[in-house]
Design goal:
Layout (H helix, E strand, L loop, with lengths): L6 H16 L12 H11 L6 H25 L5 H25 L4 H11 L3 H11 L3 H27 L4 H15 L4 E6 L8 E2 H4 L1 H5 L2 E7 L2 E3 L6 E2 L4 E6 L1 H11 L2 E2 L9 E7 L10 H4 L1 H5 L2 E7 L2 E3 L12 E7 L3 H8 L3 H5 L3 H15 L3 E2 L5 E2 L2 H16 L1 E2 L2 E2 L4 H60 L4 H11 L3 H7 L7 H24 L3
Antiparallel strand pairs: 1-6, 1-7, 2-5, 3-4, 3-6, 8-11, 9-10, 9-11, 12-13, 14-15
């Protein structure tokens, strides 16, 4: 076939076959983009290759998109339950690394091959990418191929069966979780108060600074026989009725400041509706909700933010990121103004601006050139993958610089990541394919056995540490486990176990940390 005589022909043929096979599901599980890797192994075995630059460009796109996705969550994870989650992610990764080194010594396996087994067992393509770039060896790709299939299936099976293994009553865990949430986020109630304190007569809501002093939201004010939507400039007068939302404790503070509670109802003359918006206006990015004054200026409440497939409950310190899908409750007549504020431009969202992407990658490449001298004869460099990853992490945290928006919408980032992964896996697979049969003949059973152990034992260690030492709610623990394994299929497998969002929330918090920790651990293994 003439198409096999050209590198680009081989590339598009193997990716076409790989993508097609990746869509086939068995018991709800599919290889997705990873199928390209296994097709590339076959092509490589028959001495079919693709240009090296394709793999290199794929590596750059893939690692930059990983940094952009993980950045904000990576830094935010340390603020809430950070120590617990860091402990679990470190436990899984380090125990897996230690087991990998021990098994490699026992079975006399090349450490480059062993680190490939480690990345495959933990289904971490990003760690594989960094390892191959640093070692310049095809052996990690072979190890990855041997361990990856059970890595995908094993984590799904263990997370799904673990409640039975540990004899967990899911219903009780759900009740405990809801009690934790209730204690952490007290129930919000709405009450009406009559303005009776002379010290507040004639002052505006902004001057009184009610939100900061009482941590409550003023949603309505009834004065002069009409209901108005409060703004920072709304003047409070004697006898006005104020409707406020907050916890019982916070509303008590408001009562002392304003006046006694009343059961008189405030007549409604505004129709509140729910609408979804897309955040595409860079003027609304990286500004705390408290400063945007959505409630004061628009009588609007952002009830949820959907970001990178995860639903986030906003608070006064939350900030919009480009591409967020938000749910807003507000009077119908204010919706147009809110849309103008946040952008809501689907066309702008769908367009991937490549200037920030290539600029960010260029900064990452420059970072990779930095060498830190550790001795007379040795200097340390984080390499191309490390430089591009760090650039993505930092720039996504910054969000925007002037008119340049570093953040990429979820759909665009997914496109960039998948494109990079397709390029990278096709190159890695064809390189590894030339050697894989000989490797399997030599010690194939040992490699598969090692991969199974590296997948299973660290997971059980994390479950026991989380349950018996850290005393974490088991639903949270399952989310932390799947996040530590960076396994989305496993998260999907445990979702039917509970009606709560406990696993999803914890997964989103631990995933960014685990992503970085596994990459670091894989590099430590190569030192042995």
């Amino acid at each position: 076939m003439e198409i096999l005589n050209t590198g680009y022909g081989v590339f598009f043929l193997l990716t076409t076959i790989g993508i097609f096979l990746g869509r086939i599901k068995i018991k709800g599980i599919s290889l997705d983009t990873s199928a390209i890797f296994f097709i590339a192994l076959i092509f490589g075995y028959y001495d079919l290759t693709i240009p090296d630059i394709i793999q290199q460009i794929g590596l750059i796109f893939f690692m930059y998109s990983v940094g952009i996705q993980a950045g904000p969550g990576f830094f935010e994870s340390f603020k809430r339950r950070g120590l617990q989650l860091l402990t679990l992610a470190l436990t899984l990764s380090l125990s897996g690394g230690i087991i990998t080194v021990i098994l490699a010594k026992i079975f006399d396996v090349n450490m480059h091959m062993a680190v490939g087994l480690f990345t495959g067992s933990l289904t971490s393509a990003s760690s594989l990418a960094v390892t191959i770039e640093n070692t310049q060896s095809t052996l990690p790709g072979i190890g990855f191929a041997m361990a990856f299939p059970f890595g995908v299936i094993g984590v799904v099976l263990i997370t799904r069966l673990s409640p039975r293994i540990f004899k967990i009553d899911i219903k009780k865990e759900e009740q405990k979780y809801l009690q934790e949430i209730k204690a952490q986020y007290p129930k919000l109630v709405n009450k009406n108060y009559i303005v009776e304190n002379q010290n507040v007569f004639g002052k505006t809501i902004g001057e009184l600074n009610l939100r900061s002093l009482t941590n409550t939201n003023i949603s309505k004010v009834y004065q002069k026989y009409s209901t108005i939507n409060p703004k920072a400039t709304t003047v409070i007068r004697e006898g006005d009725i104020i409707r406020a939302c907050g916890t019982a404790e916070d509303l008590q503070k408001l009562k002392l400041l304003i006046g006694r509670e009343t059961h008189r109802q405030i007549p409604s003359n505004k129709k509140i509706i729910i609408r979804h918006f897309l955040v595409t206006n860079n003027k609304a990015l990286n500004i705390p909700f408290g400063e945007l004054a959505l409630l004061q200026n628009y009588n609007a409440t952002v009830t949820s933010i959907r970001r990178s497939g995860i639903d986030i409950t906003p608070n006064a310190n939350s900030r919009f990121r480009f591409g967020d899908k938000i749910t807003v409750a507000a009077p119908e007549e204010n919706m147009k103004r809110i849309g103008t504020l946040v952008g809501d431009d689907r066309k702008k969202l769908d367009e991937l601006d490549f200037l920030p992407v290539v600029t960010g990658i260029l900064l990452g490449i420059l970072i990779s050139f930095i060498k830190i001298p550790l001795s007379k004869d040795f200097s340390f460099s984080i390499g191309l993958t490390g430089g591009v990853l760090i650039a993505g992490l930092v720039l996504s945290k910054i969000g925007k610089t002037g008119k340049i928006i570093w953040n990429i919408s979820g759909s665009s980032n997914q496109f960039l990541r998948k494109l990079g992964l397709i390029f990278f896996l096709s190159g890695v697979g064809t390189d590894a394919g030339a050697l894989i049969i000989d490797t399997i003949k030599t010690n194939g059973i040992n490699l598969f056995f090692m991969g199974v152990i590296i997948t299973i034992i660290p997971m059980f260690i994390v479950l026991m540490v989380g349950k018996y030492i850290l005393k974490i709610n088991f639903l949270r623990l399952l989310g932390a486990l799947t996040g530590s394994m960076t396994s989305t299929p496993a998260l999907s497998a445990i979702e039917p176990l509970t009606k709560t969002n406990a696993p999803q929330v914890t997964y989103a918090m631990v995933y960014p940390m685990a992503l970085i920790i596994i990459i670091i651990t894989s590099q430590l293994i190569t030192l042995f």
